[in-house]
Amino acid sequence: MKTEILMTTDVHLTDGFKASGTSPPDAKHIMTAQLTDELVKFLAGQSVPCSEKHLMRLVRGRRQIKVVALRNLIKDGSVARSGSGKRGDPFLYALKPKQPTVSVTAVVEEIIL
Questions:
Q1: Least packed by Cβ within 10 Å: which of 28, 32, 49, 80?
Q2: Domain ranges, ordered by start, for the chain
Q3: Mean pLDDT by 10 residues, the chain (113 residues)
Q4: For 1-113, where are the alpha helices, taking DSSP H only?
């Protein structure tokens, strides 16, 4: 006879919602997605790039998950990182401007007219 034990976790997210899953990684993915959205919202409201220290202090949530969310944003190209990350030249983060999507047919039609 084979017995399986499933662990369930309840995670209370920062906005008051509760996420339930069958394993801890599910909850971690939910929190990472939520903090990714929070980081994007925060950076969208900034007129100048922000240091990581500034981001970690002003965006609510667990630091470890914020770091993962920030690295994911850099990897997928949503956030630009500048600076060398050394004393006196910290990494600075800013949202990359969205590239306007223009269809080739619209451009061709505009040229013809």
A1: 80
A2: 9-112
A3: 49 50 69 93 94 94 94 94 93 85 57 58
A4: 24-44, 52-58, 63-75, 104-112
**Residue 77 backbone zone (phi > 0: left; psi -120 to 50: alpha; other: beta):** left
CATH number given to 9-112: 1.10.10.10
pTM summary value: 0.64
Name the nearest CA neighbour of 46 among 87, 74, 79. 79
φ, ψ of residue 62 to 5 degrees: the values are -70, 130
Token pair 């369930």 is at which residue?
A: 8
Residue type at 11 in one-letter notation: V
pLDDT given for residue 26 in this prediction? 78
Q: What are phi and psi of 37, to 5 degrees?
A: -60, -40
What's the alpha-carbon Rg for the chain, to the nearest Å?
20
